[in-house]
Amino acid sequence: SCVKRAIKLENLQEQKEICNSKTGNEKIQCKKELKDKGYSLIKWHFYDLEERAEDFLQRGLIDKDDVVDFISKTEQNKIKFNDAKTKEGRKNIILVVKEDWKEFTDKVRENLRIK
Q: Residue 94: which residues within 8 A CB-CB, separation 6 or more?
């Protein structure tokens, strides 16, 4: 919620309605800005997962190689997200990052069982 406030994306539905009430170039520009804010929020979430992975490393819950691997994949997916030309393409990248995070946290859980 702090990030949403910072990028002024607190009430998405309300902001969509405001954009739809505009006409011509104002409407186009409003929708573009709203879309860019949404993309910024998604990329912030990717960054947040990287920070969480580093926190697991600092707490001794995961090996450095696993963290480096996860961060590397996430950075590559940020680039792919930026380069994606379609909404479907961006959705697929989000799903890949989500699956990578699940695999990573499964490793953390497995390490906790072993210890």
A: 42, 81
Q: What tokens were used for 115? A: 């210890």
Pairwise CA distance, residues 95 & 52, whole Å? 18
Cα 39 from Cα 32, distance rounded (Å)? 11
Q: What pTM was estimated for this model as a whole?
A: 0.83
CA distances from 75 to 1, 13, 81, 93 (A): 23, 30, 10, 11
In 3-state terms, what secondary structure has residue 66?
A: helix
Task: Find the angle CA(31)-CA(28)-CA(4) to the nearest 5 degrees.
Answer: 20
pLDDT in tens, 76-107: 999 999 999 999 999 999 999 999 999 999 99
The pairs formed by 52-60 with CB atoms below 8 angstroms and a separation of 24 or more are 53/104, 56/108
- pLDDT (tens digit, 9 = 90+) per residue, 12-39? 778 888 888 999 999 999 889 888 888 8
